[in-house]
Every structure is written in structure tokens, then in C-alpha cells.
Design a protein that fits this description.
The chain is α/β, with parallel strands linked by helices and 350 residues long. The protein has two domains: 6-138 and 316-347, Quinone Oxidoreductase, Chain A, domain 1 (Alpha-Beta Complex), CATH 3.90.180; 157-290, NAD(P)-binding Rossmann-like Domain (Rossmann fold, 3-Layer(aba) Sandwich), CATH 3.40.50. The protein contains ten helices and 18 strands. The strands form four sheets. Strands 3, 5, 6, 9, 10, 17 and 18 form a seven-stranded mixed sheet that branches. Strands 13-12-11-14-15-16 form a six-stranded parallel sheet, with helices on both faces. The two termini are 33 Å apart.
Length: 350
């Protein structure tokens, strides 16, 4: 009897426990799927929530990793959109494609949807399988590491700006300069923002945002709300993005809004935050907007902005680690404390 080919994978076996390295069979693609040889997989703050059980993932054991880029190794018999040898990046939502939400371009609400690395095996592995409809050919100008990170942090940043209805000439405040925030600063500028205020505690991240054309606002040395109101002459900003997931920064994102301002919240938290309805929302006609994931139809625009150089991930993706449980757990430990490099990828194929 022929033995199944094995691959290395780093999996979550129980909430609250470190990830573990396992050898399991290489998955087999279905008729509409593709088998992808993973070259790079980003490590996201969401992976911290999955490991901790704050955002439940499963069924367990489960391979984490939802930011994936690699090469198509094999396709199902019905696949025509990609072929073996194609360099691809992976939209992490596998959906039915036919329900009202999918047909309307809002596939993140598909009742049958499964997220790569949360509901189905992800990219902390040598191989993964996804529907071919989720794959986008990666331009040769974009590395695998950058292609992986584009699929979550950058894509979610773009979706947040689109949800906030950013218009050319408007002002933006970005709270949190991790992978999402560093992309959001550049994307806001690319979409025509007149001024971007970048808020963080970390001086190195503030300096990077300033290189991208933002006005740095240190939350360590000043009240960012007071500082942004001062810098805007009391007018506030048109758009605020909260990309950290803390009640305090969500509250601050609302409080820096000017009249008819929009606060788009993408950070994950289970804790509530307070709002003064009359002064902060009603009298301003301001809005608080939830941001959930991103959309497949936004990825081509994201790839174009990267190829054009308006989104530069070279200063953002600053570290690579091997496909080893210890190395990945160490990065997750740093992220759990809101520390570490701006963005780290697992380099599966060097």
C-alpha cells in the first residue's frame, strides 16, 4: 500500500497552549481547489487571539496562518483560473460564492464561509489547499513575503479606508502602527488624503510613519486626542482608523472626529468603550463603522498599488522565521505584549 506523503505543519492543539510542530499527510485538492506549496505565511495579531482562545478557532488541532503566498503545485479537474507553477497570493475566505452575500460582493458574511487558518488548515505548513477562486496571481515585482502580508494587514487597511469612505483632500488619523497601520498610512496617502496623523507609543514605528509622509503623534508623551485637535485647529479629522483593539484607542478614534467624521474600527476586543452620544456623535453627525475582514474584489487594486510603489512593504516586513513551533510561538508572545517587529513572516521555502 502506498504511503501518504507527509508535510511539516505548526498547529494549535488547544486554546491557551503553545503551537506544536506535527507531520501530517499533504492535503489533496478537490475538483475546484488548488494545492499550494507555501513559500511565506505572515504572523498576524489575530493568530494571538486564536492561540489564546479569545477568538475561537477550530476544529482542533488546526494549522494556523491566514496570510499566505506560494506556488500552485496541483489543481482540481475543474480549475481553469490558475495552473501549476503560478505564483499566487491567497484571499483567506473560502465561501459558497452563490448566496446573497457572496453575489453582492460581501463574502465575509457568507454563512458557509471558512477562514484559512481559523476554520480550515492554514499556511503555517509546507502545503495548504484553498478554492482556486481565492487565488490571485502574484506579480513578479512582489515577493512571496510581501504577497503574504498583503492578504491580511494591507487588505484590511484598504477595506477600512473604503468602509470609511475616504475622499481625496480629507484628513485621517491612524491609531496603531503595526502591520495594518503602516499599510494604512501609505494607502491613505495613495487614496488622496491631505494629511495623515499616525498615533502610537513606539518611537521607531512613529519614525517609519513619518517617512511615509504622516504626522507622528506620540501617545507616550501627550494625549493624542488633544494633540490632534490642536494640530487641526480644533476641527478634528474626517476619518479615524482604530487598528489596535483597545477600548481606550477606540474611544480616542471617536473623539478626534470632526463634523460628519467616520471612525472605522478594525482592532479586535471583547471589551466595551464609552461614547458621549450627543457631543461626540449626534451633534457631529459622526459615525462609528465596524470593519470585518476585506473583500476579494479589493485585492487587484491592492496589488496594483504595490506594483506602482505607492504601497511599500519593504520597511514593514522586517523579519522572517523558520517553520518551527518555537520560533512562531516566540513571535506570538511578542505580539501578545504589543511588541516585536512591524511584521514577521514564516519563511517556508527559502
Amino acid at each position: 500500500m502506498r504511503r501518504a506523503r507527509l508535510m511539516k505543519t505548526v498547529r494549535l492543539v488547544a486554546a491557551g497552549r503553545p503551537l506544536e510542530l506535527h507531520d501530517i499527510p499533504v492535503p489533496v485538492p478537490g475538483p475546484t481547489d488548488a494545492l499550494i506549496r507555501v513559500h511565506a505565511a505572515g504572523i498576524c495579531h489575530s493568530d494571538v487571539h486564536y492561540r489564546a482562545g479569545v477568538s475561537p478557532a477550530g476544529p482542533l488541532p488546526l494549522t494556523l496562518g491566514h496570510e499566505v503566498a506560494g506556488v500552485v503545485e496541483r489543481v482540481g479537474e475543474k480549475v481553469r483560473s490558475v495552473r501549476p507553477g503560478d505564483r499566487v497570493c491567497v484571499h483567506y475566505l473560502a465561501t459558497c460564492g452563490t448566496c446573497a452575500w457572496c453575489a453582492g460582493g460581501h463574502e465575509q458574511f457568507c454563512a458557509a464561509g471558512q477562514m484559512l487558518g481559523k476554520h480550515r488548515p492554514g499556511g503555517f505548513a509546507e502545503y495548504t489547499v484553498m478554492p482556486a477562486a481565492c487565488l490571485f496571481v502574484l506579480p513578479p515585482e512582489i515577493s512571496f513575503a510581501h504577497g503574504a502580508v498583503l492578504m491580511c494587514s494591507s487588505a484590511t487597511a484598504l477595506h477600512a479606508l473604503r468602509k470609511a469612505r475616504l475622499q481625496p483632500g480629507e484628513t485621517v488619523a491612524v491609531f496603531g502602527l503595526g502591520g495594518l497601520g503602516a499599510s494604512a498610512v501609505q494607502l491613505a496617502r495613495a487614496l488622496g488624503a491631505a494629511t495623515v496623523y499616525a498615533v502610537d507609543l513606539n518611537q521607531a514605528k512613529l519614525a517609519l510613519a513619518e517617512k511615509f509622509g504622516a504626522v507622528p503623534v506620540s501617545a507616550r508623551t501627550a494625549d493624542p486626542v488633544a494633540e490632534i485637535l490642536h494640530l487641526t485647529g480644533g476641527r478634528g479629522v474626517n476619518v479615524a482608523l482604530e487598528l489596535i483593539g483597545l477600548p481606550l484607542t477606540m474611544q480616542q478614534a471617536v473623539r478626534v472626529l470632526g463634523k460628519m467624521g467616520r471612525a472605522a474600527l478594525a482592532g479586535l476586543t471583547q471589551q466595551p468603550f464609552g461614547v458621549h452620544p450627543y457631543t461626540e456623535l449626534i451633534n457631529q453627525e459622526a459615525e462609528i463603522i465596524g470593519v470585518s475582514d476585506h473583500l476579494a474584489r479589493e485585492i487587484p487594486e491592492l496589488l496594483r498599488l504595490t506594483v506602482d510603489g505607492r504601497l511599500d512593504l519593504r520597511p514593514i516586513v522586517t523579519r522572517a522565521v523558520p517553520l518551527e513551533a518555537g520560533a512562531i510561538n516566540a513571535v506570538l508572545d511578542e505580539l501578545e505584549k504589543f511588541g516585536g517587529a512591524t511584521r514577521t513572516v514564516v519563511s517556508v521555502v527559502s
